[in-house]
Amino acid sequence: xxxxxxxxxxxxxxxxxxxxxxxxxxxxxxxxxxxxxxxxxxxxxxxxxxxxxxxxxxxxxxxxxxxxxxxxxxxxxxxxxxxxxxxxxxxxxxxxxxxxxxxxxxxxxxxxxxxxxxxxxxxxxxxxxxxxxxxxxxxxxxxxxxxxxxxxxxxxxxxxxxxxxxxxxxxxxxxxxxxxxxxxxxxxxxxxxxxxxxxxxxxxxxxxxxxxxxxxxxxxxxxxxxxxxxxxxxxxxxxxxxxxxxxxxxxxxxxxxxxxxxxxxxxxxxxxxxxxxxxxxxxxxxxxxxxxxxxxxxxxxxxxxxxxxxxxxxxxxxxxxxxxxxxxxxxxxxxxxxxxxxxxxxxxxxxxxxxxxxxxxxxxxxxxxxxxxxxxxxxxxxxxxxxxxxxxxxxxxxxxxxxxxxxxxxxxxxxxxxxxxxxxxxxxxxxxxxxxxxxxxxxxxxxxxxxxxxxxxxxxxxxxxxxxxx
Length: 470
Hints:
Shape: elongated
Number of helices: 21
Low-confidence stretches: 1-6
Distance between the termini: 79 Å
Radius of gyration: 27 Å
């Protein structure tokens, strides 16, 4: 079957062209639809790609030149936008490519590297990418042979190892070099494997599970070191990446974690849990950066992965994978707790009634504060759906009940405050009511919010009529 890489790449390219506001709106609408249980074709995949495009646009690595992009093309399925100090199996941070290319052209094959860059740039201008194929493969083979020799040398020469680490200049430099070598030498096997996979796997079960396992086994038969990369290829096609665990279960013919750990397919569980940890890192970064919409979308991915791992695997609590999963849940709980607990207070601060004449100097509520608080309420609502797996049930239920009670009782005084208020106070009080309508729509639904808005409109109109008669 034809590879699904190009359609996914086209989707990613399109999303990167969208303005940030439209990407945020798309995230919000997708998340709301999925929370409602609506059937969104490809919704999970689209949500992942939108979220990834937001993060990539914010933290994009320096752009590579055309020759480097052609050279690293086989690495594309294994690149991630991750800045963590921990190296993931069969994954390379996109930010590592520019220093890796500099190392190749400066220290690995300087003369050949410069000749390739010049020739590839000319060929691109004259004939496009197709005209460069006769240049790319020979240079990739040269680089692979030289890196293999260098990696053998550092096994017996500690000074050479330190020098090579410093020359590459990236975190986990030697692991990155080994991954590059594995992908370059196995590029044909991996390309054939990618072509055998469906472009998008909505649910890895039955025939598609067998097809994926046959592909991975074929890669392993060609070169045992390609197993992690074949698994990552499969993960890249999954609507729910955590389902990679099913290959581990199938490979061991058991869901018992101890049995799986004794098979080569144990690496599938390792890759999956590392991906969950990466998402938790993104969650913490998004919370710190105030990207609440991205957080809301990310919670679903983390929740589904944790639930999937716990349901697909028979995990002992004190097993390494069991402890890793428990640590993930604890980390998510700690990251979310402050946001959850602060939400009712944020709402009270914005909506608290002001004595007559005290708000005359403030025209309206700050629109940024209102939008941020609305996003926090939406995040709190998402936490209600995912609370059990993410270990935030108690704090979420308490905060949500507090928020419901305040909005149910406090909005009445806001509406009444529009009646008989000083004209100088009216714009501020109206902005509070408008904010309350938005908040209530998130908590109680659009019908409740519409009724509140209508009541506020009646109150404001009655006051204007009274003033006109006077």
